[in-house]
């Protein structure tokens, strides 16, 4: 089931959103931007609904921070202000869609369907690379139909690097994205997991590889034949 995180400090709106959406989506809720950031860094979600005006980190800043590590996460922003200026700020920071309060819940459902559909087309949960299948929904990977075991962190690292082949990720980006910003893990943790991942992926050596970019970070590369 598609998982939606709702970042909204108004408890009544939280309850209404959950009541209307929980039949079709798995719902998680937080009360401000910092909680949202912490939650997303620890838990995979499929879509974010965020208010603009929230304590600690507002919606604009939240989106700006998220886009550094989650460029493809669908984000719908709720605002009490229907101004072009606010929408410009939101879209510039990486918002995918906007809705003004009071919320038309029927329209909200249609917009969510469109965002989820587009995300699945552009960012499939299943990567198929030659004779390898990497399935994010089940956290499993297969070579010629034979499952290869990975720990949760190893799999998330595998998927992160191969879902954007050629893109360089710094150790800090990988640490924040997979272990979370408030984790006690260090950049050495990333280095250790990359080393383990390379050993685990020896059976895949003719399909993809992980390259260290000196002074920058790591990238996944598909081996062309």
Overview of this structure, please?
The chain has 225 residues and is of the alpha/beta class. The chain is 42% helix and 23% strand. Strands 2-1-3-4-5 form a five-stranded parallel beta sheet, sandwiched between helices. A four-stranded antiparallel beta sheet has the order 6-7-8-9, with helices on one face. Strands 10-11 form a two-stranded antiparallel ribbon. A hairpin with a 2-residue loop joins β8 (140-143) and β9. The protein starts with a strand and ends with a strand. The model has no long low-confidence stretch (mean pLDDT 86).
Task: Give a brief description.
The protein is an alpha/beta fold. It has helices spanning 11-21, 33-42, 59-69, 84-93, 105-122, 152-163, 171-179, 187-200; strands at residues 3-7, 26-30, 47-51, 75-79, 97-100, 126-129, 132-135, 140-143, 146-148, 208-213, 217-222. It contains 8 helices and 11 strands.
Sum up the structure in keywords.
225 residues; 5-stranded parallel β-sheet; 8 helices; alpha/beta; 4-stranded antiparallel β-sheet
């Amino acid at each position: 089931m598609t998982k939606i995180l709702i970042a909204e400090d108004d408890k009544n709106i939280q309850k209404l959103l959950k009541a209307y959406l929980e039949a079709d989506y798995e719902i998680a809720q937080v009360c401000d931007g910092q909680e949202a950031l912490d939650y997303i860094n620890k838990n995979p979600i499929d879509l974010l609904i965020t208010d603009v005006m929230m304590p600690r980190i507002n919606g604009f800043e939240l989106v700006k921070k998220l886009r550094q590590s989650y460029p493809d996460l669908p984000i719908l922003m709720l605002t009490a202000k229907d101004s072009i200026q606010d929408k410009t700020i939101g879209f510039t920071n990486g918002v995918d869609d906007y809705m003004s309060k009071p919320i038309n819940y029927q329209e909200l459902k249609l917009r969510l369907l469109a965002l989820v559909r587009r995300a699945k087309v552009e960012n499939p949960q299943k990567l198929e690379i030659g004779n390898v299948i990497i399935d994010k929904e089940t956290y499993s990977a297969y070579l010629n139909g034979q499952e290869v075991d990975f720990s949760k962190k190893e799999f998330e690292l595998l998927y992160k690097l191969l879902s954007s082949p050629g893109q360089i990720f710094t150790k800090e980006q990988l640490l924040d994205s997979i272990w979370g910003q408030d984790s006690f893990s260090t950049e050495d943790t990333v280095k250790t997991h990359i080393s383990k991942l390379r050993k685990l992926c020896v059976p895949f050596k003719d399909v993809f590889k992980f390259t260290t970019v000196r002074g920058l970070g790591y990238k996944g590369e598909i081996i062309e034949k």
